[in-house]
């Protein structure tokens, strides 16, 4: 009877450790909180990395994709919901903030805003806050998931047990010559990303 009990315990240990998979950067190193990374296209070169831009000529700034030849964009810093996390893990809630100085007084922490009155898209903007996971900060939490051999960004926060947020993959909404980071409405595919040390 004791021999049957050991494999059962080992299977629980394997399941518990298999759930935590660290995100890797382009060098194959684990992503770490507080370190600067560029978010760059994963399998396409139609444009550059993620940056800041104004959608309506005013603040707060929105998350955009730099034009082709526009470089890696601005670096970001990840802050997981778990303050003791040593790595940024697949499928775990994290704040994302640009490590950049802007003319706007708002913080550069990402948050989901919308829907836009005209396009009905939910866009990723700035002006969020870091930490304090819960219903008051629901729009500030994002996840990284594996996708097409690289990664995708997802909005589906799990920091509030009673909340029912809109969920979906993040994609690029092309408006004229601008490329905005937005929540997929279901028919758009997730945009593949990689993370490159700054």
From TrEMBL:
The signal sequence is 1-18
Q: Which Gene3D superfamilies match?
A: 2.80.10.50
User: Record's InterPro entries?
Assistant: Kunitz_inhibitor_STI-like_sf, Prot_inh_Kunz-lg
Q: Which CDD domains match?
A: beta-trefoil_STI_VvMLP-like
Q: Which GO terms describe its molecular function?
A: endopeptidase inhibitor activity
The alphabetical list of record keywords is: Signal
Q: Which domain of life is it from?
A: Eukaryota
| Family matches, as PANTHER family | KUNITZ TRYPSIN INHIBITOR 2, KUNITZ TRYPSIN INHIBITOR 5
Can you say what this protein is called? Miraculin-like
Q: Which species does this protein come from? A: Dioscorea cayennensis subsp. rotundata
The gene it comes from is: LOC120279722
